[in-house]
Amino acid sequence: MDKEEKVVTVNGIGGDETSEAMHEEAVNELVEKMSRLDITDDEEMRGIGEDTGNLSPRRSPKKEEPTCVYHLKRVLWHGKKIPIVTQNENGPCPLIAISNVLLLRGKIFLPQLIEMITAEQLVEYIGDAIISSVPKKLLVVSCISRLLNYEQNVQDAIAVLPKLHTGLDVNVQFTGVTSFEYTSECNVFDLLNITLYHGWVIDPQCPEVVSAIGSLGYNQIVEKIINNKGSNEDELVTEALIAEQFLEKTASQMTYHGLCELHAAMKNEELAVLFRNNHFSTILKHRDELFQLVTDQGFLHETKVVWETLSNIEGDGMFVDGHFITVPPKESTFPMDSDNNEKCCS
């Protein structure tokens, strides 16, 4: 433990290191606080049985308020039929992507017979998953100040959950597949142990682009282009034009270098979330190949269509089933094009 972390005083508690008794008391107090956090104002009963999980009963959504309802599709996963949340035209991308990672990991369970679920209910399930993960994580936290920091992170994440309905404020940085400007929204992924990736990475073999963009995020690059295109300094104008050209050439928000970096960064059998085209999707690396979970509601009744290969940046991957065998799907009723993706996360 670092020297500056050895002496901690919180509510009159101090000492060289947190004693075991004090640590246990602090953990219990924090867990109790977490259990009292209000995630949403909606209610729904989960059901009874081992497939309902071990969390408290849910409440039902208020009938007087309109709500988004999403169809569930049961797909083959590790020899079992697991429900995933499908996406309609303007579905809440991050909410669905995170929910599906947790469903496939077995971190949340849904009643066997339900066919639809509301956005509010999904928010509660995710909130419960965050809170239920607190005790295990705190076992490795031995400093009171770190406990308090963890408590603040959980509270910040719970406050962000309602934003999952419409999208999250994500600012990509072009230096690596896990490089994002840090915001409170990142806490949701961190606490759930879900890695957020992107593939919008500059090829280091393009030094002029590297120099023009550096470690700036997307928002800063757009601002730089606007401010410098009309500059009297030739160097600033040149950098602005190079940055603008890069954004135009990589409008799909993925480069081949980024795809290679993504493949190298992910571990086999890792489930994660990919941000691309202003859209969040569930991804998997299986036997050294990348796949995206097919959540388009147009494939709701095509039970064999489960994953789509992510082998190029053109978006023309092959569909595979739960055994990762290629299947010829019927034409989708609701194609998920880039326009719809932008709507869902705008």
TrEMBL record:
<dbReference type="GO" id="GO:0071944">
    <property type="term" value="C:cell periphery"/>
</dbReference>
<keyword id="KW-0378">Hydrolase</keyword>
<feature type="region of interest" description="Disordered">
    <location>
        <begin position="41"/>
        <end position="65"/>
    </location>
</feature>
<dbReference type="GO" id="GO:0004843">
    <property type="term" value="F:cysteine-type deubiquitinase activity"/>
</dbReference>
<dbReference type="GO" id="GO:0005829">
    <property type="term" value="C:cytosol"/>
</dbReference>
<feature type="domain" description="MINDY deubiquitinase">
    <location>
        <begin position="69"/>
        <end position="324"/>
    </location>
</feature>
<keyword id="KW-0788">Thiol protease</keyword>
<dbReference type="GO" id="GO:0036435">
    <property type="term" value="F:K48-linked polyubiquitin modification-dependent protein binding"/>
</dbReference>
<dbReference type="GO" id="GO:0006508">
    <property type="term" value="P:proteolysis"/>
</dbReference>
<dbReference type="InterPro" id="IPR033979">
    <property type="entry name" value="MINDY_domain"/>
</dbReference>
<comment type="function">
    <text>Hydrolase that can specifically remove 'Lys-48'-linked conjugated ubiquitin from proteins. Has exodeubiquitinase activity and has a preference for long polyubiquitin chains. May play a regulatory role at the level of protein turnover.</text>
</comment>
<feature type="region of interest" description="Disordered">
    <location>
        <begin position="1"/>
        <end position="22"/>
    </location>
</feature>
<dbReference type="InterPro" id="IPR007518">
    <property type="entry name" value="MINDY"/>
</dbReference>
<keyword id="KW-0645">Protease</keyword>
<protein>
    <recommendedName>
        <fullName>Ubiquitin carboxyl-terminal hydrolase</fullName>
        <ecNumber>3.4.19.12</ecNumber>
    </recommendedName>
</protein>
<dbReference type="GO" id="GO:0016807">
    <property type="term" value="F:cysteine-type carboxypeptidase activity"/>
</dbReference>
<dbReference type="GO" id="GO:0140934">
    <property type="term" value="F:histone deubiquitinase activity"/>
</dbReference>
<keyword id="KW-0833">Ubl conjugation pathway</keyword>
<dbReference type="GO" id="GO:0071108">
    <property type="term" value="P:protein K48-linked deubiquitination"/>
</dbReference>
<comment type="similarity">
    <text>Belongs to the MINDY deubiquitinase family. FAM63 subfamily.</text>
</comment>
<dbReference type="Pfam" id="PF04424">
    <property type="entry name" value="MINDY_DUB"/>
</dbReference>
<dbReference type="GO" id="GO:1990380">
    <property type="term" value="F:K48-linked deubiquitinase activity"/>
</dbReference>
